[in-house]
Design brief:
It is a single chain. With 74 residues, the chain is α+β, with helices and mostly antiparallel strands. The chain has one domain. 42% of the residues lie in helices and 24% in strands. The strands form 2 sheets. Strands 1-2 form a two-stranded antiparallel ribbon. Strand 1 and strand 2 form a beta hairpin. The longest helix is centred in the last third of the chain and has 16 residues. The N and C termini lie far apart (53 Å).
Length: 74
């Protein structure tokens, strides 16, 4: 992995992500990245853990209450 340098960007401080890293993250200008603290350090990801948690909850409700949801859809 390339080394990133913390630099001044306008009135802020940030890092410039090389094209290769953006490609590996599957993101482009304007997309959101999520930061997580892990036992190995800080992780930068395009994966939104809160959205994944909400989708897991929704899938559980759909599985558990399948008949009720089917009736509501009619």
């Amino acid at each position: 992995m390339p080394e990133l340098k913390v630099t001044t960007i306008g009135n802020s401080t940030g890092v410039i992500l090389p094209k290769e890293l953006l490609s590996k993250l599957r993101v482009q200008k304007g997309d959101k990245l999520f930061v997580s603290e892990t036992p190995n350090g800080i992780e930068l990801s395009s994966y939104n853990p809160e959205f994944a948690r909400q989708m897991d909850a929704a899938e559980e409700i759909m599985r558990k209450d399948r008949d009720v949801l089917r009736k509501l859809a009619q």
